[in-house]
Design goal:
By secondary structure, the chain is an alpha/beta fold. It is about 45% helix and about 20% strand. The chain is built from three helices and four strands; from the N terminus they run E-H-E-H-E-H-E. It has a four-stranded parallel β-sheet with strand order 2-1-3-4. Helix 2 packs parallel to helix 3. The longest helix is centred in the first third of the chain and has 13 residues.
């Protein structure tokens, strides 16, 4: 299972990624909303862990853009 973690707090993102990998998930990290949106829009993920308070593009805007383009990936906020 492939999971995208969109979190601007570097240490928290590292901890979430590590926990997911320990549970045998493949985890990738984006540290701002623009990067997170791009990855979620161009790559296939089974789930996303999404922070709301992101630089460049907030999490709600990221999610709205994904949904308006038909991306129905499950998202944990």
């Amino acid at each position: 299972m492939r999971v995208l973690v969109v979190e601007d707090n570097v240490e928290l993102a590292r901890q979430i990624k590590s926990a997911l990998e320990h549970a045998l998930y493949v985890a990738e990290v984006a540290h701002d909303g623009e990067e997170g949106f791009f990855l979620g829009d161009t790559e296939r993920y089974d789930a996303v862990v999404l922070d709301l308070g992101l630089p460049k593009l907030d999490g709600i805007e990221v999610l709205e853009r994904w949904r308006s383009s038909g991306n129905t990936v499950p998202v944990i906020i």
